[in-house]
Structures are given as structure tokens and as C-alpha cells.
């Protein structure tokens, strides 16, 4: 069911949502959170599609905030309500014109699901300098950005690291979940002393910088960052006194795990779509101190002109 409201108010949007649920025979119960998407017209389609897929695992009300012509002289609010299309949740696209676009929080607050967590997501490259201080970020327990989408990827990641507050996270860190799991499993087995590391990835890859920083922190060794043609992170090499532990993924799909004295092993290591990344972030709303530490190390090393891994003990 789709409902278009032009020149509307939050009260009319609420009434339309209630009426739609009654017509479809679906009460408001079962919603586990409110997801606020802050985007523009060009990126809203992919973001809403990813949110709709993630809502199958996390039924939620999706409020998509789209600013249109914020410098216009008159304020106007248009809304598009989508219910029952592909999942159990509700999707509301809020297009704000004129000065109203500068006060999006005043429109969003009345539409939040009562007594449920709030997640704010900036899917594009235009993220606030401090997500926790942004009016829509202040409403949320979890604030999700994606520095990979920014024009200055590494600069944006360093900026977000400096402004970190509990609840902040970034998709460049979420993309590393499977890499970190594979490396942790490989190191759970008996191995010789690790003396250095190397992360290989495409140029200006914030995920690679975070992975190098995380390995350096956890292993207490210098981790070098080298460049490949991609896609994404293509390899990790951990140098030990008895030989190298290597994970090599040249195609973004399947990785080869090589360990001294053992046969090579093929491991599925797909580059995950946006919907999977979002669903993972919606599973946990607690502070991610590991991301905080890795991002802080990267920002410190970037400011000092060192590789992201830095030197041991730095």
C-alpha cells in the first residue's frame, strides 16, 4: 500500500499510518526499532531498498529524511508512506523543502516508535562532523556512517574517529567482520611468534586502514599497509618466526588461507551488500569499543604521518 501526502503535517502522517494498519489488519506491535535514514534524492532508492531488506530481520519503522531546496523561501513537507510491500515494517519518505529542512528533527520526533531504540544512518558521503551532536544523531542510540562513500575517505574516517561517542560506528568497520573472524580463527590455532604484518588493499581504503590498526593493537606488532588493484581488501600477511600466515582474496569472493606446514584452504569471503551490513549493525546497539580503538589508532597514525598500523607499542 502506497499513500502520497503533499503539503502535509506529522499529525496527518500519523493518522495515515494508523488507518493503513487497520485496513491491512496489522497492528503496530512487533516493531523493534525506528531507523532514520538521512540522505538525498539520488541515494534514497538504494538506501531504502537496503533498509527494506534489513527490516525482514528487524521489523522497524523506516523514516527517510530527504532535504529538497533548503534555501527556498517557504517550508513544505511531502510524505510517501509504503506498507506491506516486501516486509513487516513501515517506510515513510519525508521530503522537506525550504527552512523546514534545517529542522528535520522537529518532524521526525513525533513519528518515532514509542519505547523502542532509534538508529540513525547516513548512507552517503555527506556525514556530520560529529554524528552524536547532529540533531537527528542525538535521537539515536546507534549512529551509522560510511566513510567509504565520502570524497575524502581517509580524512572522513579520521574526522569521525576524533568525534567518536559511544554508539557511533561506520560501515568500513562492519565490512571487516568476516575478515576479523577468519583471522581470529586462524590465530586460535597453534602458531609461531608473530613479528610483523601486512594488509593489502585498493588505494584509500578505510577498511584496510582499520584492519591494519586493529591487527597492530591486538598483536602488538607493526603492520604495513600496501596497495593493490582491489577490489577492497585483497590480502593479509602475518609474518611469524616459522613462516607466513597468509589470507589472499584477489576476486572479492573466495579467499585462500595459507599456513606454514599445512595445506592451503579455500574460504568463502564475499564482499557483502549494503543490506547485510545494515542488518548486522541493527543487531547490536551497544558501544563498539573495538571500532573506537582501531579508529583512534588510525587517526593518530595519520596525524603523525605513519602507516595505519604504526610501530609496535605506538
Automatic annotation (TrEMBL):
<protein>
    <submittedName>
        <fullName>Oxidoreductase</fullName>
    </submittedName>
</protein>
<dbReference type="Pfam" id="PF10128">
    <property type="entry name" value="OpcA_G6PD_assem"/>
</dbReference>
<dbReference type="InterPro" id="IPR046802">
    <property type="entry name" value="OpcA_G6PD_C"/>
</dbReference>
<feature type="domain" description="Glucose-6-phosphate dehydrogenase assembly protein OpcA C-terminal">
    <location>
        <begin position="166"/>
        <end position="294"/>
    </location>
</feature>
<dbReference type="InterPro" id="IPR004555">
    <property type="entry name" value="G6PDH_assembly_OpcA"/>
</dbReference>
<dbReference type="InterPro" id="IPR046801">
    <property type="entry name" value="OpcA_G6PD_N"/>
</dbReference>
<feature type="domain" description="Glucose-6-phosphate dehydrogenase assembly protein OpcA N-terminal">
    <location>
        <begin position="51"/>
        <end position="161"/>
    </location>
</feature>
<dbReference type="Pfam" id="PF20171">
    <property type="entry name" value="OpcA_G6PD_C"/>
</dbReference>
Amino acid at each position: 500500500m502506497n499513500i502520497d501526502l503533499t503539503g502535509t503535517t506529522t499529525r496527518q502522517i500519523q493518522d495515515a499510518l494508523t488507518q493503513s494498519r487497520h485496513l491491512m489488519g496489522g497492528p503496530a506491535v512487533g516493531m523493534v526499532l525506528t531507523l532514520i535514514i538521512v540522505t538525498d534524492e539520488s541515494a534514497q532508492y538504494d538506501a531504502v531498498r537496503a533498509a527494506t531488506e534489513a527490516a525482514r530481520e528487524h521489523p522497524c519503522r523506516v523514516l527517510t529524511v530527504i532535504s529538497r531546496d533548503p534555501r527556498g523561501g517557504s517550508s513544505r513537507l511531502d510524505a510517501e508512506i509504503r506498507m506491506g510491500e516486501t516486509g513487516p515494517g513501515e517506510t515513510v519518505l519525508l521530503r522537506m523543502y525550504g527552512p523546514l529542512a534545517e529542522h528535520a528533527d522537529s518532524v521526525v520526533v513525533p513519528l518515532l516508535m514509542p519505547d523502542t531504540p532509534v538508529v540513525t544512518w547516513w548512507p552517503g558521503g555527506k556525514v556530520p562532523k560529529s554524528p552524536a551532536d547532529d540533531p537527528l544523531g542525538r535521537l539515536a542510540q546507534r549512529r551509522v556512517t560510511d566513510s567509504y562513500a565520502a570524497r575524502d575517505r581517509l580524512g572522513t574516517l579520521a574526522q569521525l574517529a576524533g568525534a567518536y561517542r559511544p554508539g557511533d560506528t561506520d560501515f568500513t568497520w562492519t565490512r571487516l567482520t568476516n575478515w576479523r573472524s577468519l583471522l581470529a580463527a586462524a590465530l586460535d590455532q597453534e602458531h609461531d611468534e608473530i613479528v610483523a604484518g601486512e594488509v593489502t588493499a585498493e588505494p584509500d581504503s578505510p577498511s584496510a586502514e582499520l584492519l591494519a590498526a586493529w591487527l597492530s593493537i591486538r598483536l602488538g606488532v607493526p603492520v604495513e599497509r600496501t596497495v593493490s588493484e582491489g577490489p577492497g581488501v585483497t590480502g593479509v600477511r602475518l609474518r611469524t618466526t616459522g613462516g607466513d600466515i597468509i589470507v589472499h582474496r584477489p576476486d572479492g569472493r573466495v579467499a585462500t588461507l595459507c599456513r606454514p606446514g599445512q595445506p592451503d584452504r579455500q574460504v568463502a569471503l564475499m564482499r557483502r551488500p549494503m543490506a547485510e551490513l545494515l542488518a548486522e549493525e541493527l543487531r547490536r546497539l551497544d558501544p563498539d569499543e573495538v571500532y573506537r580503538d582501531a579508529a583512534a589508532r588510525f587517526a593518530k597514525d595519520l596525524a603523525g604521518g605513519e602507516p595505519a598500523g604504526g610501530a609496535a607499542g605506538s
